[in-house]
Amino acid sequence: MQTISITGFGSYLPRNMLDNARLPPLDTPVSEEEIERIGVRQRGIADDAEGIAEMGASAARRALERAALDPADIDLVVLASWTERRYIPEVAPKLLHLLGAKKAFGWDTCCACAGFLYGLATAHGFLQNPRFSRALVVASERTSRRARPGSKGTLILGDGAGAFVLERREHGGAGRLIDYELATDGAHHDIMSISEAGWVQTHIAQRELNELASESMFGVASRLLERNRLALDDVAWIVPHSGTAGVQASVARRFGVSPGKILTNFDVVGNISSASIPVALDAFVTEGRVRPGDIVLSMAVGTGWYSAAAIYSI
After folding, report:
1. Rg, the chain, Cα only
2. 177, pLDDT greater than 70
3. Which of 107, 201, 265, 307 has the most CB atoms around its CB within 10 Å?
4. Which residues form the catalytic set?
């Protein structure tokens, strides 16, 4: 198995970052106590010029700059996104065009909130082939547009994009994608849907959803750690898909770790679906919390029902 290094990462948040006071009024006002429980103080709301491809390209450029690469150096691009799915045209070709990645081939993938980790796994597989050396995995979402106006979802859902550069290297380096684990459970395929109007609908109780999410993430993470003969004590940080404050609390309980070991910037960006992990990682590396050589465990679930985990170092 070829060593796959993570040589660059980047993120993009919309120009318009709204705090709670600037949000449109809710149908049913909520108390300060409930806002505190929801846990989001601000979130990005993309404007019409900040589309999936445009935000993804901005995050990708920052990742490429960190990797000291040009877009022309990239062999393949995986774009994870579900919030504005189309029959045609798909978005990855536009992303490649905006970047000027003329050598690369690319495509869209979905898998809901687990899309970024599924994209990492897919790119890892392609990079085992000696024909390909460098991949770009991008997650870009306008999740805010899937919240019904006036609903509590507008307090939680935000927009943004993140990206990783992966390279096949003979001798590896400090940052590498160590391993990943993927799972799909079709028995839960119908617990969430999009209404005819385009809003997210959840068909099970929130508490039940929190427990299902934490149990699913624990399952893939446990198998991943066991296969690599690692314990949670060997992991410096857990950087999960943020989901909701309830999911985060369930994850901490299920894994039996202190909340301080779990890094999320959910409170200042909201739930940005598949982009949550790369956006959070970029923020915590930039501020010096995550340091070169730290082992990071990331997990996500996506309606469908998908679950995924990856273990890597930066």
Report:
1. 18
2. yes
3. 307
4. 113, 241, 271
